[in-house]
């Protein structure tokens, strides 16, 4: 387990989690906000995206009251992302992170805020992060409100940054500074 905060815990992704990822990533309600409703996952896609990829990304399952409810990942920003985001002149330790709550019954209960705050605290304290960044799509106002409650600030607009449901969508670069 990476950390625990009350009923919330985050642990490393295990192979046995593949079926829960398929469940979440084939739910149109979840896909509306993560990956897109035109991109439902099957077991092969889950293995391709979550298990057979870059070793620099730390992939985790989010549990609440010992039940898996979501996914979170974090990674040191690479040179391509640093360039895209405009961090080429900084010597800061910068982490990126992405997450979703896959169990819709756990939405709108403050768990996302608790998760983001807890992960930022973990990255700052355990990984010596100076900054943590994310790039949510501009239309995802609920997520952006959550991130702003956690201390993130909008830094710059990233036009047509992410393909979602057949079109490239604008995203905000948001950052938390220690």
TrEMBL record:
It comes from the Bacteria. Pfam families: Acetyltransf_8. Residues 8-178 form the N-acetyltransferase domain. Gene3D superfamilies: 3.40.630.30. The keyword Iron does not apply. One of its GO terms (molecular function) is N-acyltransferase activity. GO terms for biological process: response to antibiotic. This is Acetyltransferase.
């Amino acid at each position: 387990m990476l950390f625990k905060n009350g009923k919330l815990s985050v642990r490393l992704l295990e192979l046995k989690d593949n079926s829960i990822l398929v469940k979440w990533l084939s739910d149109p309600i979840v896909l509306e906000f993560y990956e897109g409703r035109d991109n439902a996952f099957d077991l092969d896609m889950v293995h391709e995206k979550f298990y057979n990829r870059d070793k620099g990304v730390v992939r985790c399952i989010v549990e609440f009251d010992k039940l898996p409810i979501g996914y979170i990942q974090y990674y040191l920003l690479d040179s391509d992302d640093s360039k895209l985001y405009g961090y080429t002149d900084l010597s800061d330790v910068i982490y990126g992170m992405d997450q979703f709550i896959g169990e819709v019954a756990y939405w709108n209960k403050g768990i996302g805020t608790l998760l983001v705050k807890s992960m930022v605290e973990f990255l700052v304290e355990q990984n010596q992060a100076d900054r943590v960044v994310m790039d949510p799509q501009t239309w995802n106002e609920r997520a952006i409100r959550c991130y702003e409650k956690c201390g993130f600030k909008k830094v710059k607009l990233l036009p047509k940054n992410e393909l979602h449901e057949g079109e490239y969508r604008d995203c905000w670069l948001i950052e938390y500074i220690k």
